């Protein structure tokens, strides 16, 4: 019971701050108002963030179904993820971008550790699936938020153009997603990147044809990876 209470409290705090950041002005501005100030191409259209609704619904289901099943390790990791999610939002709204970036990196690492507490075959709604969804979206956001942070500090990109950097990040995203697909036998993780890349295509549309074309092409690569990558893990945890 104490484990469930701890996870529930941190979950609720994280949920409230996550959704309020999009609809309520914190420090005089919403989350999207801050991000829309920066000319970042590796960013999805605003509606893409609706995936948070699915993530938190599935996490709520995961919490209820694991009322007495979570280990101490899973409890600590999940609670830390929720706390980091909440405080990173505050750092973002107060434009403490470096601290925000550090928190986001830690959040993704904790999610990775939590993700690895499940076997490769446990893709049920009460098992790895909600964590995989959250992990994938947070990984994508880490890449996006890196772009926002560097742009806010007027990074010159080593002389490379913004569209080229966007394509590089898209390619890195595909490599990460296919790695998870191949080594963890996970179709949810790359599916989230498809959702994100479609959002990037709509965000840039015809204004940045290179980025839009690359995003849609790499969506196709991810679909092929989901359909035809069949390697099963060599061992079960």
From TrEMBL:
Transmembrane helix as UniProt keyword: yes
Taxonomic superkingdom: Bacteria
Q: Which organism is it from?
A: Lysinibacillus tabacifolii
Sequence intervals crossing the membrane: 5-24, 44-64, 76-92, 98-119, 131-151, 163-180, 187-203, 209-229
Please state what the protein is called: Tryptophan-rich sensory protein
Question: Could you tell me the keywords of this UniProt record?
Answer: Membrane, Transmembrane, Transmembrane helix
